[in-house]
Automatic annotation (TrEMBL):
The protein's name: Protein-glutamate methylesterase/protein-glutamine glutaminase
NCBIfam families (UniProt xref): PRK00742.1, PRK12555.1
Protein source organism: Litorilituus sediminis
Entries under InterPro entries matching the protein: CheB-like, CheB_C, CheY-like_superfamily, Sig_transdc_resp-reg_Me-estase, Sig_transdc_resp-reg_receiver
Subcellular location: Cytoplasm
Protein's job: Involved in chemotaxis. Part of a chemotaxis signal transduction system that modulates chemotaxis in response to various stimuli. Catalyzes the demethylation of specific methylglutamate residues introduced into the chemoreceptors (methyl-accepting chemotaxis proteins or MCP) by CheR. Also mediates the irreversible deamidation of specific glutamine residues to glutamic acid.
Amino acid sequence: MDKIKVLVVDDSSVIRSIVKESLSAAKHIEVVGEAEDPFVARELIKKLNPDVLTLDVEMPKMDGITFLHNLMRLRPMPVVMLSTLTTKGADITLQALEIGAVDFIAKPSVQDLLATQKSFQETIIEKVTQAGNVDQKNFKLADTISKTPTRQGTNAPKKYQGCARNNHLIAIGASTGGTEAIKEILTKLPENSPPVVIAQHIPKTFSLRFAERVNALCHIQVQEAGHGQKIKVGNAYIAPGDKHLVVVQKNGALFCTLEDGPEVNRHKPAVDVLFESLTEFANNVQAILLTGMGQDGAQGMLQLRQAGARTVIQDKATSLIWGMPGKAFALDAHTVQLPLAEITANVLAFSQLTREQMKEALYAHQ
């Protein structure tokens, strides 16, 4: 097996050294070069032909976003962003994911590095490995540059009659690189959509900004979930980046609950935590697992299916990284797998079935 060739781009020699040292622990990865600015990076890409780029979001001489635009237009390739955990860093990173970066990792401060070095090493090796295994046939990121932003509600179906059942819930799980997949689903939902709860692997400073950015494009109301918040039709609730999101049922209504427990599958929020909280009323749930690395969500989805939920995974052909949905597939945790573009319409159609029709449809997939 050929090694994954990586080019490290960062203006800090200390960070470049940290990244290089961290990746050198993996025998299947080779750091073939490093660059202190995009102009040097451009020449090294031509010379070294790397498989994956790690890129600082804030760069001198040419900012990371401009460089990424140019890269995706001229030489599309998997890019893992290194992001500062600030509001500015969040906006830049989310924009980078819109342009075509496959994932991001929190950039460690030199002061905190001793405490987080092992975790950083494990995470960056995992993300670079997954990026290096992206199916190039599905990697048409240059196409994203020409897309115009979706105007609020323009994608929403015009003839949706509303859900046939009270408290019907859509639950979505995704990793850090799944922001665009989540957006693809939410922007197509009508204002009377069943409520949506979302667990995504995203830092605290990113979750609110992501909710705000997506809300501006949607017909439904998208927000960061609050503790004790009642779940309502036409709303989507994104777990804060430092809390687990669980759903509880009280007096015939559903509520968000935020928990500050330990990480699960190295994540907080964790998809498994959200999914497992839904098993009590699983027969009124549709759970969706989107593109992303790792296995978080697979076991929770299996429990949901066994408890009577409808479970949907994004198919391999449209997943940039078929890690999480692939693990669910391996466990036979899914009721159905669908291309990303078809998930919203399919889930909405299912939500209009009566309980009897729903049972018949689920039985047909057994």
